[in-house]
């Protein structure tokens, strides 16, 4: 039976409940009275249940859909303003013992270049990322207890945090590795990680097991219950996601929201982030072989309704998506994007050649970080390199309470402006610097608290004089 507080995967992600929800949504997709009542209630910014959200996703009424998109934009603005957090992935190793049919890292792939970064190589990669201007990384590694044991991941984190180059420093390391034990999650917490990220790929148990025919990832329950173990291990910021295109998107949309509801109900803290990747071409992977691909319009609707359903959660779109697609979904709900990304093992210090490809998927947005920052500034967004909440202990329920009350903006807006100023001083092109300085001058005057505004102005002057790392 469905039980959102249960710690058993098939109870908090219950197949019968999902199917009943989809049936309910289909029957009510033209129920104007219900749809309008859900839109009105969602204006309180307290979110919607998975079943209510499914109705909005299914909605077939053009005028009501216009209201849905408008509401998502309003909620995005209320919680996140015009700030967009920047990050980059760093692939440590593509050795993997799983048989995932959608990933070129699967163990049967004998022609992909297998790589594992040494600590010296990680140092060089980190310096290269610092020299781009990045302050936040997401570490990626295949599942291989021999080549990528937890001790290796911990050593990599220590190396990255230990490197200070010129004015560069990686201040937050998020980790995206395979489901593991409570003990190992405690080790990751002690190593100082930010968010633990794990994509479910699909919540449909039958499809999941078919897509993961061999290897430890085949165990649906162990994978799906990983976030509960991570939080038991002390990691209070976790990131969910599915790989849209593997299974019917409506099913996974509902499962994703049920997982968020479960964490809120069972542990008291919902997901820190939700990612919405779509399947992309890679080495021996052709998306045409997967029949559940979704259009750009459906993708935009998914982002929109997730923003309404879980307004407190950060939403991430990576360089899997094109410039055009990313521009569209930024205003609908996305609050974090990657920039200047490489999906190969390493690839920042020394770009890979075509003959030595180790990439997990093809990047769609190949612009440099400076080009992306410039693009965001053109659209009046504030590219933020802030990591203050993590370093000030504003994580888990403390972070969520600040977000839900709207108080987080008192920290985020000033911190975003000061970290943007750092980027402009140390890494930006002259054109980007000019646009950024103009935006900072404009945005500083919008800070409502006069004391905070005065402090920010003082720190901006100090940043220009060479001082670094101010934060609220």
From TrEMBL:
GO terms for molecular function: 4 iron, 4 sulfur cluster binding; catalytic activity; metal ion binding. This is [FeFe] hydrogenase H-cluster radical SAM maturase HydG. It comes from the Bacteria. Signal peptide: none annotated. Keywords: 4Fe-4S, Iron, Iron-sulfur, Metal-binding, S-adenosyl-L-methionine. The keyword S-adenosyl-L-methionine applies. The keyword Iron-sulfur applies. Residues 82-312 form the Radical SAM core domain. One of its GO terms (biological process) is water-soluble vitamin biosynthetic process. Residues 342-361 are annotated as: Disordered. Its cofactor is [4Fe-4S] cluster. Pfam families: BATS (PF06968), Radical_SAM (PF04055).
């Amino acid at each position: 039976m469905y039980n959102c507080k249960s710690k058993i995967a098939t109870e908090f992600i219950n197949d019968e409940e999902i199917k009943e929800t989809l049936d309910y949504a289909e029957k009510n997709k033209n129920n104007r009275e219900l749809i309008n009542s859900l839109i009105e209630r969602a204006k309180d910014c307290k979110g919607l249940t998975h079943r209510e959200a499914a109705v909005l996703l299914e909605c077939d009424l053009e005028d009501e859909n216009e209201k849905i998109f408008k509401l998502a934009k309003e909620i995005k603005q209320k919680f996140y303003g015009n700030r967009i957090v920047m990050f980059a992935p760093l692939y440590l190793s593509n050795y993997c013992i799983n048989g995932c049919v959608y990933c070129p890292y699967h163990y049967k792939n004998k022609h992909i270049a297998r790589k594992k970064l040494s600590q010296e190589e990680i140092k060089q990669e980190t310096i290269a990322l610092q020299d781009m201007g990045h302050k936040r990384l997401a570490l990626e590694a295949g599942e291989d207890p021999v080549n990528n044991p937890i001790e290796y991941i911990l050593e990599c984190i220590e190396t990255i945090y230990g490197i200070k180059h010129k004015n560069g420093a990686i201040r937050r390391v998020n980790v995206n590795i395979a489901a593991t034990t409570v003990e190992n999650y405690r080790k990751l917490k002690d190593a100082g990680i930010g968010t633990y990220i794990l994509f479910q790929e699909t919540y449909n148990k039958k499809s999941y097991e078919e897509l993961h025919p061999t290897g430890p990832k085949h165990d649906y329950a162990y994978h799906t219950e990983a976030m509960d173990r991570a939080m038991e291990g002390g990691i209070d910021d976790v990131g969910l996601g599915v790989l849209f295109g593997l299974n019917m998107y409506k099913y996974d949309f509902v499962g994703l929201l049920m997982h968020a509801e479960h964490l809120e109900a069972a542990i008291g803290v919902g997901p820190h982030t939700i990612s919405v990747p779509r399947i992309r071409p890679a080495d021996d992977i052709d998306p045409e072989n997967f029949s559940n691909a979704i259009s750009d319009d459906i993708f935009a609707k998914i982002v929109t309704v997730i923003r309404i359903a879980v307004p407190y959660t950060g939403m991430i779109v990576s360089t899997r998506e094109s410039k055009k697609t990313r521009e569209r979904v930024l205003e609908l709900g996305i609050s974090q994007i990657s920039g200047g990304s490489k999906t190969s093992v390493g690839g920042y210090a020394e770009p890979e050649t075509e003959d030595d490809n180790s990439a997990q998927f093809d990047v769609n947005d190949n612009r440099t970080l400076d080009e992306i920052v410039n693009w965001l500034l053109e659209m009046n967004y504030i590219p933020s390199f802030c990591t203050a909440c993590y370093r000030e202990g504003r994580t888990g329920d403390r972070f969520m309470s600040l977000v839900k009350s709207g108080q987080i903006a008192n920290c985020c807006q000033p911190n975003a402006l000061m970290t943007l100023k750092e980027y402009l001083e140390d890494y930006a092109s002259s054109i980007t610097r000019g646009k950024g300085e103009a935006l900072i001058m404009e945005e500083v005057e919008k800070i409502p608290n006069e004391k905070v505004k005065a402090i920010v102005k003082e720190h901006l002057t100090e940043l220009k004089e060479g001082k670094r790392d101010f934060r609220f």
